[in-house]
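Posted in: Structural Biology > Protein-Ligand Complexes

Title: Requesting predicted complex, S-adenosylmethionine in pocket

I'd be grateful if someone could produce the 3D structure tokens for the following input. Sequence and ligand are given below.
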Amino acid sequence: MQYHPNLNAYSGVEDLSNFTPEQFSAYCKVKLGECGKHIDFIKKNILSILPKPKRLTIAEIGSGNSKLLYRLELENLLTSAIGFELSESRHEFAEKFGIHVNAQKTKNVCASFLDYPPPPLDLVIGVDIVLQLVAPVSQGSEKSALKWMKDSIKPEGFLLLELWSFENIINQLDACNGNLKIWEEYQIDDPWEFCLANITRMKNNDIKWDKTFLKRGSTQKSSFTNILRPYSQKAIKQKLMENGFTRIKFFNYWSQPGDCSEGEYIVLAQ
Ligand SMILES: C[S@@+](CC[C@H](N)C(=O)[O-])C[C@H]1O[C@@H](n2cnc3c(N)ncnc32)[C@H](O)[C@@H]1O
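-- Reply #1 --
Done. Output follows.
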């Protein structure tokens, strides 16, 4: 695969050398806690309509630190899980996280899911805009990703995506002559304190998102660039239908109103 900024955008993220043992354990606790809304959603919209035993074979694409897979395992909702994550630092974090929570059913693979033949799965998860990072990488990436998902899901299985329409960002870009800057502050348990995002629009309408992070209590900085593909609900529905998905539902929140950021939405397809 040719070089694209999205392929190493997350290298160094969750680097274990940035965490003392106490910070690591506190951070894992917070990350597991953040998945309560996903668990509520999966129980309500997927597990409730499956026959017993209600356990799933799952792959998560762009699994990051694998927090969601570990939370699913801790809730006894997994038969087995595989998390695909490109970033070595995040993969290493996920491996240590797995030991920390004594995970036995979750396997982490440090590679693109596209390089692995799809296994038969009950559920493919792509939360936090993963598909929108994968699609811009090359001309065929979007098609390959949708085909991989379709081919790996069993006939009655599910695809669960979290996407961002970028409508709010596109409106702000239009109002700011095509260049938007946003500051963000992270929670106290995060080793990074602030992020400055510089956002512009590319010729093909993908969004270029440059981020600079400032370390807590230090002058250390770290930067990366993401190219993100916006999808309206209409556009993703069309693409999913073209790729063989039929029952496609949209949700504006996971568990309760306001638990998705503005412009984010959830897609559940079969
Ligand atoms: C926005 S993060 C989301 C991480 C995680 N799902 C979460 O919710 O915290 C996207 C992740 O996808 C990973 N990624 C991007 N393309 C990938 C690919 N083709 N295969 C596996 N991982 C990928 C990135 O390295 C990054 O860690």
